[in-house]
C-alpha cells in the first residue's frame, strides 16, 4: 500500500510525514506477530473446549452433522436482529442442494429493546402469526418446525434451549439474562395457537457454517465479520473435555460456536495501540471482547476518529488548524462505512474524501491532510483484515486443515474495500504457502462469501435435528421434555 502512496506524498510537510510513519509503526502487524497471535489463539481454542475454560467460551451448539444436500421439507426460520426481525419459509426440495425461499422483514421497534420481556416475545409471535396468515390463508397446517437464529451469547445444554448470557446490539430487557429464552418464546406462540414448533435455537455463525456446507462440501468453517465478529466449526466430541461426562461417541461431530470476539481479553498477545485502550476503557463493558474491538465494524470508524482528534490536539502536529472539530469529537460519529468511502476514493487528489469531511464533519482539508487520512484508513482496515485471519488460521491449524473453504458473512467482509485480499495475504504469510504459479490458482484455504446462515442455515439445522429425532438418537441433545 505504501508504495502506491509515496509518489503523491512529496508535498506532505515534515510533521505530518513523521505522524504517518508513527501510525504505520503502531498499526502494522508483521508476519512474525501474526504467527505468534495464531499460536496463542490455538491454545485459547483448546482451553475453551476444556473444563478449565478460558476467555473464548467455545459453546457447544448440539448441531451434530453437516448437511448431505438431500434434506427435504418445509421449515420456518426466524432471525432476531438488532434492527429487523426476518421470517422465512424455506422449502428444501428433492433436487440436491436446492431450496425455495419466501421471506418478510418486520421492523424491531426501538422501545421494545428496553421494554418488558412479555412485550418482546408477544411482538415476535405476532410477526410469525402475520407471516403464516399472509402466506397460508385458509390452509390447515400441521405444526411447522422452526429454526430460531438467536444471535446473542447463550449457553445451550440442548439444541432447543438457550440461556441468555448477556444482551448485546442495544437490547436491555430485564428478567431475560440468565434464563432460558425458549419457554418465554413458546408461551407467546401457544397463546396465539400458531402452528409452529421450535426445533432448534441457533447462532448466526453456526447457521453460516451449515448453509455454506449445504452447497459446498469443502466448507469447514463459518465466520461473521460485521458489526461484531465470530466463527463456528465442527469439532469431534472426543476433543471437547468439558463434555466428557456425557459419554458421547468420540468421533461424533459437534458444531462449536467459538464466540471468539473475546480472544485475548487478558491482553497477552494482541498489539493494542493507545487508541485501542481508549476504545476498551470507554466501552459499556471494559475488559471484554478484546479481539472484536480491534477488527469489527462497530469500532473501525471510532479508532479512525480517535487518532484524528489526538493529532489535532497535539500542538507539535498541524492538522485541521483553526477549524471547529466539535462534530469529530462526538464518539462513534463515524462508522466503518465512512472508512470504506475514504479507501474507495478513486481520485489522485482525494477530492471525494475532501467532500466527505466537509459535508459530514464541517472540516475543510488540505491535500497533505487528505494523504494522512487516506493512509490512516488503509492502516486500520488492513490491520483488521490481517488480525481476522489469525482466527481462521488457528482453527485450520488446530484441526489440521491443509485445504478447505471458509464461509464468511457480515458487512465488513462483504463491503469493506480490499478486506478479502488483505485477509488472504495474511493467511498466506501465517501458513507459509508457496507463491501462486498464476493468478487463477486457488489458495489452499479460501475465505468465500457465505450462504444465508440465518435463513437457510436455520432451516437446515431444524431439518438435521428432526432427522436425528426420527433415528431415535436425540437423548442428551434435545431437551428431555421434548424427547419422544
Q: Total strand count, please?
A: 13
End-to-end Cα distance: 60 Å
Strands side by side in the biggest sheet: 1-11-10-9-12-13
Q: Total number of helical segments? A: 15
Q: How much is the radius of gyration in Å?
A: 24 Å
- Given as residue ranges, the uncertain stretches (5+ residues, pLDDT < 50) are 1-7
The succession of helices and strands, N to C, reads HHHEEEEHEEEHEHEEEHHHHHHEHHEH
The CATH class label of one domain is Alpha Beta
What name does CATH use for the topology of one domain?
Hexokinase, domain 1
Shape: globular
EC number: 2.7.1.-
Pathway: Carbohydrate metabolism; hexose metabolism; Carbohydrate degradation; glycolysis; D-glyceraldehyde 3-phosphate and glycerone phosphate from D-glucose: step 1/4
GO molecular function: ATP binding; D-glucose binding; fructokinase activity; glucokinase activity; mannokinase activity
Family: Belongs to the hexokinase family.
Amino acid at each position: 500500500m505504501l508504495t502506491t502512496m509515496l509518489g503523491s506524498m512529496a508535498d506532505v510537510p515534515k510533521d505530518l510525514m513523521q505522524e504517518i510513519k508513527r501510525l504505520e509503526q503502531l498499526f502494522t502487524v508483521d508476519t512474525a506477530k501474526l504467527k505468534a497471535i495464531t499460536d496463542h489463539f490455538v491454545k485459547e481454542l483448546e482451553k475453551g473446549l476444556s473444563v478449565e475454560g478460558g476467555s473464548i467460551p467455545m459453546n457447544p451448539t448440539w448441531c451434530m452433522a453437516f448437511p448431505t444436500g438431500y434434506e427435504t421439507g418445509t421449515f420456518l426460520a426466524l432471525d432476531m436482529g438488532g434492527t429487523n426481525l426476518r421470517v422465512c419459509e424455506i422449502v428444501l426440495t428433492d433436487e440436491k442442494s436446492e431450496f425455495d425461499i419466501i421471506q418478510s422483514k418486520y421492523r424491531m421497534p426501538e422501545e421494545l429493546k428496553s421494554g418488558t420481556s412479555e412485550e418482546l416475545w408477544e411482538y415476535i409471535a405476532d410477526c410469525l402469526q402475520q407471516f403464516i396468515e399472509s402466506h397460508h390463508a385458509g390452509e390447515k397446517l400441521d405444526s411447522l418446525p422452526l429454526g430460531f437464529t438467536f444471535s446473542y451469547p447463550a449457553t445451550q445444554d440442548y439444541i432447543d434451549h438457550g440461556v441468555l448470557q448477556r444482551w448485546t446490539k442495544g437490547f436491555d430487557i430485564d428478567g431475560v439474562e440468565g434464563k432460558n429464552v425458549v419457554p418465554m418464546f413458546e408461551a407467546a406462540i401457544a397463546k396465539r395457537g400458531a402452528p409452529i414448533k421450535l426445533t432448534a435455537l441457533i447462532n448466526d455463525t453456526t447457521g453460516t457454517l451449515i448453509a455454506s456446507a449445504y452447497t459446498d462440501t469443502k466448507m469447514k468453517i463459518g465466520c461473521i465479520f460485521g458489526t461484531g465478529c465470530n466463527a463456528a466449526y465442527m469439532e469431534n466430541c472426543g476433543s471437547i473435555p468439558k463434555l466428557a461426562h456425557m459419554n458421547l461417541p468420540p468421533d461424533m461431530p459437534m458444531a462449536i460456536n467459538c464466540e471468539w470476539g473475546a480472544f485475548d481479553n487478558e491482553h497477552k498477545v494482541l498489539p493494542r495501540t493507545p487508541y485501542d485502550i481508549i476504545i476498551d476503557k470507554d466501552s459499556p463493558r471494559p475488559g471484554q471482547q478484546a479481539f472484536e474491538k480491534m477488527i469489527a465494524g462497530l469500532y473501525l470508524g471510532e479508532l479512525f476518529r480517535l487518532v484524528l482528534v489526538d493529532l489535532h490536539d497535539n500542538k507539535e502536529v498541524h492538522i485541521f488548524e483553526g477549524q471547529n472539530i466539535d462534530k469529530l469529537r462526538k464518539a462513534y460519529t463515524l462508522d466503518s462505512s465512512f472508512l470504506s468511502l475514504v479507501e474507495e476514493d478513486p481520485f489522485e487528489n482525494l477530492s471525494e474524501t475532501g467532500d466527505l469531511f466537509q459535508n459530514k464533519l464541517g472540516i475543510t482539508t488540505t491535500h497533505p491532510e487528505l494523504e494522512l487520512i487516506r493512509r490512516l484508513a488503509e492502516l486500520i482496515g488492513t490491520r483488521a483484515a490481517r488480525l481476522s485471519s489469525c482466527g481462521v488460521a488457528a482453527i485450520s491449524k488446530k484441526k489440521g486443515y491443509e485445504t478447505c473453504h471458509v464461509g464468511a458473512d457480515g458487512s465488513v467482509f462483504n463491503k469493506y474495500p480490499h478486506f478479502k485480499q488483505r485477509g488472504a495475504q495474511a493467511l498466506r504469510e501465517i501458513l507459509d504457502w508457496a507463491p501462486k504459479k498464476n493468478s487463477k490458482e486457488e489458495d489452499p484455504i479460501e475465505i468465500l462469501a457465505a450462504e444465508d446462515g440465518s435463513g437457510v442455515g436455520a432451516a437446515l439445522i431444524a431439518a438435521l435435528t428432526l432427522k436425528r429425532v426420527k433415528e431415535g438418537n436425540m437423548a442428551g441433545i434435545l431437551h428431555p421434555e421434548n424427547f419422544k
